[in-house]
Amino acid sequence: AGALAVCEVIAAAVASEGHVPACPVFSILQAVPTEPELRFTAEDVYDRWTDCIAAHAVRFGHPTPREAAFSLHIRLQGAWVVAFARQSTAPFAMLADDLRRAAHRRSTDT
Prior knowledge:
The chain is mostly helical. It has five helices and no strands. The protein has helices at residues 2-15, 24-31, 36-59, 65-86, 90-109. Helix 4 (65-86) packs antiparallel against helix 5. It is flat, with a radius of gyration of 15 Å. 20% of the residues are buried.
């Protein structure tokens, strides 16, 4: 439920722009890939995003919150890159659908 909410919030924020902007952190990394201070700052931002997702995973009782958070972060970042390239929110919708299916499978397995 939490992972789906994160995906939907990002998709809604991106959709409200009228175009799909690039991830600002990734844009900085891409513009100046050899600048160590910017890379360290980007790494810190990404770590804080993952930490925030992990905290919610703990709250929801996920058995491996850090791993789940990192996996979701990777998937969201990938969706964002493809959404930017295509100027479409479809990658976010596809990820949300995948998360819904996974949640449904977990709920029927118990």
